[in-house]
Amino acid sequence: MEIKNIVSNGFSLNELEKRISSFAFISLRTALKSYFSTYKSSKFFISTVLNGNSMTQIEKDWQYGNEYIEDYSETIIHLQHFFELICKEILREKHELLVLNIDNKHELFYNLLFKEKVSSSDLEGLRTSEFKSTFERMCQLIRIGKLDTKFNFFNEPKNKVALEQLNLLRNRIWHRGTYVLRYEALDLFIGKYLLPLIINVVELPEYKNLENRWKYNTVNSQIDPITEIISECSNANFNIGKIAFLKELGRAAYNNPLDYKFKIFNDEIINRSKRIAEAEVHLEKYSQADRIYSCPVCGVNSLTSYIDSDGDMEEDGTYSSYWTCSWYIKCYCCSFEISSELKNPKDYGYNLPDYWYCL
Q1: Which domain of life is it from (predicted)?
Q2: Residues in the chain, pLDDT under 50
Q3: Residue ranges in 37-118 assigned as alpha helix (H)
């Protein structure tokens, strides 16, 4: 089979009777999953971010690994893609020509201009305007009253600058591939500027019923990571550790295998997860597992704490003091996991158990 035949063996979302006409909310879901994963992918340098030390900035930057860089790039690229497709859908609702570059397609231009029938296959190969041009056109049409006032939030200075900077960051990945936002800068950019804008978009009437297409499963503890991150990032001195905790809740919520519509399939998953947790704890001296909790994400009793021992050793090899403390928890159902670089949830204002303790 020739390559042209291979790549033509697909279908258009526009031809399907679905409530979504593009990849917009697939990209949003992908972006959020990647962003929420940035705590987990920073586990080898998160203590430096949280506590600071005498290291130079270049020494700190050297600690960033491929996993964080991958999550960062996926976050930026897919968020930009989400907003670009949303802006183009808004313009398309007014007229298809507002997003197309078809100077040499004269018959197609005529048919579109006078709203004659055009097949989706005729539109598939056409180039659309770049995001910068699309966004500028949409904002101008909003400003002069040619688009519905429900889109006015796009023209707010804070939101315009946020999307312009998002597009710039995407281009620096796409065309040069050399620039990465540091951990705390990414949190502030996403939490203070982009998440509020995402909420504005998803609460539009045409998208309000699409939550299941992009959002994570409900967190058992009733903590909503997006809402809480927005709230925390609105503070002048936002708590990076608290945001890390919330991101891990969100990451695990996306990975939660429990089906809340067809609960009959959950029993096997729950029982297996509980058995693993119990086996970890009951391995006695061969395991560091110590206690089992109800997971704040999935609600299953499979969240296991792990302990470690240390002490002050004297010159003769004896210990003048010795302690055993918990340092890590992991859920064997939804994969939620944090380490003791973070504080106990109560210190962040959440009514959850103290996972960090000393025996």
Answers
A1: Bacteria
A2: 106
A3: 46-51, 57-61, 66-94, 106-113
At 175, list the tokens: 């065309």
Enumerate the H helices of 194-308 as residue ranges: 195-202, 211-214, 225-233, 240-255, 266-281
Name the token pair of 91: 């313009």
SS3 123: helix
Strand-pairing partners, residue 87, are none
Residue 247, pLDDT score: 99
Q: Quick check: 273 and 52 in contact, CB under 8 A?
A: no
pLDDT digits (tens, 9 = 90+) for 55-85: 888 988 999 999 999 999 999 999 999 999 9
Tokens of 68: 């964080």
Neighbours of 113 (CB within 10 A): 11
Place of tokens 């997006």: 226
> Measuring CA to CA, how many Å separate 348 from each of 5, 65, 187, 251, 352?
56, 27, 17, 18, 10
**Amino acid 333: pLDDT:** 98
Q: Over the stretch 120-171, which tens digit does the pLDDT of each residue have?
A: 666 665 567 889 999 999 999 999 999 999 999 999 999 999 999 999 999 9
**For residue 346, which amino acid is it?**
K
CA-based radius of gyration for the chain: 25
Report yes or no: 147 and 141 within 8 Å, Cβ to Cβ.
Answer: yes
SS3 282: coil
Cβ-Cβ contacts under 8 Å for 216 (sequence gap 6 or more): 32, 36, 225, 250, 253, 254, 256
**Cβ-contact 325, 307 below 8 angstroms:** yes
Question: Which of 214, 354, 215, 224 lies closest to 297 in space, CA to CA?
Answer: 224
Cα(71)–Cα(38) distance, integer angstroms: 6
